[in-house]
Amino acid sequence: MGNEAYCQVEGAIALVSNILARVGLSGCLFISLAIAINYNSTASGDRISL
After folding, report:
1. pTM over the 0.85 mark
2. For the chain, what is the largest distance between any 2 Cα atoms, rounded to a whole number of angstroms?
3. Domain range summary for the chain, segments of one domain joined by +
4. What is the pLDDT along the chain (50 residues), one digit of tens a residue?
């Protein structure tokens, strides 16, 4: 059972890395930018509400 879980984790990592390879660097930058914008907007929203 432990080996099955390890294989699933390894498969998930391979799938994620395959998707990232297909999306490319610009996709990673876009995702990072979207997360940063979302974080900044929520942070400023908290400041405004305070």
Report:
1. no
2. 51
3. 24-50
4. 567 887 888 888 898 888 878 877 777 778 888 888 887 776 666 655 44
Strand, coil or helix: 1: coil
Which residue matches tokens 């997360």?
35
Any idea what the Cα angle at residue 10 is, between residues 30 and 3, rounded to 5°? 155
Both tokens of residue 13?
A: 């990592």
Q: 20 with 27: CB under 8 angstroms?
A: yes
Between CA 26 and CA 48 the distance in angstroms is: 32
Return the structure tokens found at 26.
Answer: 């610009």
Structure tokens at 41: 């907007």
Under 8 Å CB-to-CB from 30, ≥6 apart: which residues? none
